[in-house]
Amino acid sequence: MNQLVTGKFIQLKRKQKNLTQEQLAERLGVSNKTISKWETGD
Known about the structure:
Distance between the termini: 14 Å
């Protein structure tokens, strides 16, 4: 799986659960900037 496909999948699942990037980051123990990077494929 490439990074962009993985990022879009993470974003889709996050939105399906009605979570913000910040809320997801808190649950995973990472920063919201990390979530943003994951979702954009960086």
